[in-house]
Amino acid sequence: MSADTMPVDWEQARTLAYQAGRAAAGPAEPVSLPAADGRTLAEPLRALTDLPAFATSSIDGWAVRGPQPWRPVGRVLAGGVAPPLAADGTCVEIATGAMVPAGAEALLRIEESTRDTAGLVTGTPRAAAEWRLPGEEAHKDEELLPAGTAVDPAVIGVAATCGYEVLNVFARPRAAVLVFGDELLTAGPPGAGRVRDSLGPQVPGWLRRGGAVVDPAAVTGPVQDTLEAHLAALRGALTTADLVCTTGGTMHGPVDHLHPALAELGAEYIVNTVAVRPGFPMLLARIPGADGRPRFLAGLPGNPQSAIIALVTLVAPLLAGLQGRPAPTMPQVEAATDIPGRGDFTHLVLAHLDRSGRSATPVGHVGSAMLRGLSNAQGFVVVRPGTRVTAGESASFLQLPLVPGERP
């Protein structure tokens, strides 16, 4: 495994990361409907019956047959089964959601009906049918949602309507975080040559938003700056994690031991450095697992903003692939100001969206080591290599993996 290579194009790097994850997607597992929230369908969701399975009343009123007046011969409520209306001039009282009896020719709203002293019902049914027909929403065995669909409460509701009790979903990838750097503090303010670790506390949150499971005990560091300590930490994390994210050590300095450790572990580079600014250098490697399934290591730069760019560049597509989801896409936005390029590198520019979500304005405090700008942004305007974006021009927008309601 050679550590010397030309930087990979940013878009190609994202594709390679996704393909690697998709090829290694974990096995499907059945989970209960409530537990499926946030998971990914491993097979298409199909209708188990026609939906509705039977003709269903949309009103409270009367199911009638033949010419009026109609003589009531019974009542049918939701959940009940009415005998067929066999004779003209008869009706049954019916509730919303109840099964329409065979032989019924129309439904009459209760508020548009009258009943005489003899108990006979009269009224004019509306021209439009007042019931839902079998198969109106879906037919038996029809595909409602494809494999790869992210399960949310609405999907769970559809599955429950069909009659499912469990869903087959992809296993969620397990992730661990190793923080490298003897200069890092884990408590108190920075000073005297030491800086506070900001990645150990935040990277697990980004990973969880991407669908990974991160146990608090799976966050380790700072790991001592020796090759032996790096190898021990990596081997320990790889015993339980499908993905290990490391912070720092991606260069080739005197205390950067990640590349030698990967060589010792028999790793294969999927991506080794990406032509993107900020974010240099980052890497993604595949490590053989004892069970025959590969494990992955994402090397994030030590500078905080660069580390987050590595997460959205390599880790987000990898996690999507590992869960059988479609590759992430980027919406188009309009640049509110001119945005320069970075020569032969893709330039990712932290930006804030307006309330419409269609106009992006670059934020301040965006140095590679800064996080203030990140806290005021929803993502990055993507400036392609060899180009610049002018005000009013359309550009791709790489969204941060935010949960609903965050930073509107």
UniProtKB/TrEMBL annotation:
Task of the protein: Catalyzes the insertion of molybdate into adenylated molybdopterin with the concomitant release of AMP.
Enzyme Commission number(s) from the entry: 2.10.1.1
Protein name: Molybdopterin molybdenumtransferase
Statement: the UniProt record of this protein carries the keyword Transferase: yes
Taxonomic source organism: Paractinoplanes durhamensis
SMART domains reported in the protein's UniProt record: MoCF_biosynth
Pathway where this protein functions: Cofactor biosynthesis; molybdopterin biosynthesis
Superkingdom of the organism of origin: Bacteria
Family listed: Belongs to the MoeA family.
Enzyme's top EC category: transferase
Names of required cofactors: Mg(2+)
Pfam families per UniProt: MoCF_biosynth, MoeA_C, MoeA_N
Domain MoaB/Mog: start-end pairs: 176-321
Keywords: Magnesium, Metal-binding, Molybdenum, Molybdenum cofactor biosynthesis, Transferase
Catalytic activity: adenylyl-molybdopterin + molybdate = Mo-molybdopterin + AMP + H(+)
